[in-house]
TrEMBL record:
Residues 1-28 form the signal peptide. Residues 22-98 are annotated as: Disordered. Residues 27-89 have a biased composition (Low complexity). It comes from the Bacteria. The keyword Signal applies. Keywords: Signal. This is Uncharacterized protein.
Amino acid sequence: MTTRTMGCARSLVLGLLAACGGGGGSSATDDGSTSTASTTTGSGSETAGTDTSNGGSETSGVVPTSGPTTTAGTTDGDDTSTSTTGAPAFDCGDEINSAWGMGDDVGTLDGDAWTPGRDGDGRVNCVSWQTVPTGRWVRVVGTRLDALDAEVKAAIPGWNDRGNEDWHGVLADWVGMAWDTRHGSERGWVTVGGGHDGSSNDGVYRLELRTMTWNIERMPSDSSLWPAEYNANFTNFNPAVAYYEANPENPEGVYSDEFFDPDNPASSTRTPTSRHTYGSTVFVPELGNAGKILMGCRRYWEYDVETATWSLPKFPFDAAANYSGETGYAGENMHGWWNAAEGRYYMSATQNYNASQTWSVLAGGTEFRWEGGYPSGGWAALSNAMDQRGQTLHTLQYDAARPTSMLVTDLDTREVVGHELTYGPSAAMLEFDPQAGFDGRTLAHVAETGQYLANLEAVGEGMLWAWIDEATWTLERAEIAGDYPAVVNSNTETKLEYFPDIHAIVWVNVAEEDIRLIRLQ
């Protein structure tokens, strides 16, 4: 996968058929990934390798020094004793811990590689979770996404990913995730990831944290039904492109980013093609019977979790693909969030370069509303990271790849409070390329520690992690010890999430790596 800078985002010309990720395809890489035959990714080891496709790979092994600072008085039923591994022990009988399994299989812990012990119903046992070290990167053994390959191929004979990255591209190509952080329901989804020439995989895959397994939520499309010419830019389906170009005012509302073929009904599902989703996917539990995933990528889409179906997409403001003022649709580097009080999905930024702004829409795809530069606009809106916690939106703004300020937005009142960042001693000497951007940024607000975990890309150092203290707004390097991935993708997007009831930060990196987590004390 090739590295892309904000210079691409600022290009003055973007073809009508550019992917939602807007520009730059993926080059063929050999990431050394392999697939296993495990349906639930319950076992197996990772393949070591080096990702040289993202401008500065991280090395495997232990990353030295401290983890997050924790505040006094934070509890999850913990007492002051410790488990046999030295991790803080807690009462598995407490209600807050009742969502874990209650079996006695503790699993295994080999350094910072944890193989969960599970109850008869598949849930990770509470006594196993007790053994996980705190304040360190811990690898959850058996949680590789590409281990689902065998199940997909068994269900769809002859299926293959036509992209040059296969499963790697599903997570790595500027793709984010939607998360459910509710107690007992902790999970996340990656939907139609990939795009360009990296991956054609349009499946929906679910990560269950209480079982620590990947599952297939919705099978990818049968690739044998696709025309041979659908083999380069998978964001745009060739028959749909041809139909739209011949019928731009078509009554069906067809556009290039969906599977539509008037001559082949079997492949004309009207579902989204694979694409760079950035931070546009958001899970809303109160919609439908089991919640819906909303996606503002190119157009507005809704995915119903109960029925595993996509609704027909809507163009913002009924406009076709253009970026002119208030009629633009969805460009690149976008972030989505849900305002529960209004029942509206927000998407920022519409790709209109220095005029990049925000739009919102009611659930169901009606009453689009132009929001202007809220909470930010222009170039800043094309290079930021967001994390929503209830009705508060946290926005980390970057300038030429350098984190510069944090915006805290009250979604009920729309009040935006800005905080300028200072760099502490460990980060003061970091250098940033003034001509570059960093569009793989992520953010997790951890209220119990009073900190944010964010990533950045410094000259000569590749992707780094940083803690930002919300009391002083000081940024320091986050040199966190533990089991760090051998293959690191800097396009983290929204694949980092904090779960308050299990007191852990979860990082989904690439398909050929197990997930990592930091359990907080």
